[in-house]
Amino acid sequence: MVYCPSCRADVGEGDRFCRACGHSLTPAPAPALFGRPAPTPGQAAQYWRVFFRPFFTFAIVFFALFFLLVVFAVAAWFFMFGRSHGENGQTVFGPGRPVCAIVEPASGDSLNAHER
Fold it and tell me: How far apart, in Å, are the Cα atoms of 64 and each of 8, 10, 56, 75?
């Protein structure tokens, strides 16, 4: 049995309109956009894929170059200002600036200077 989607009245198998309320029982065609039929979901997806392809290509290239620039900058910074060992074996950071220097007491000197 077929029912009207609007008023739930019984309708015949071949009826195009409901006899009780006049509602159309045939599916409405897709609306036309600018004289063309509405695109299918696959056509719409293809349209947007082609539309955004240049943007995504630019974004991928931009971030790849940005990543390479950051890697190069970090490598250059480490090469110029990285840790190295000074003349006396102390660790230096940058051009000649000691980070920590281990000073060994001379023989006979105690580690605590205030004990003298």
Answer: 61, 65, 12, 17
Q: How does pLDDT run across 87-98, given as a tens digit for each residue?
A: 665 655 555 555
Sequence-ordered list of residues with C-beta below 8 angstroms from that of 86, at least 6 positions apart, any chain: 92, 96, 98
Rounded Cα distance, 24 and 65, in Å: 59
Q: Which letter does DSSP use for residue 39 in this model?
A: P
- Asked whether the CA dihedral 62, 63, 64, 67 is positive or negative, the reply is positive
∠ CA 54-57-63, rounded to 5°: 135
Confidence (pTM): 0.39
Q: How many Cα atoms within 13 Å fall on the side-chain side of residue 93?
A: 3
Residues facing residue 36 across a β-bridge: 33
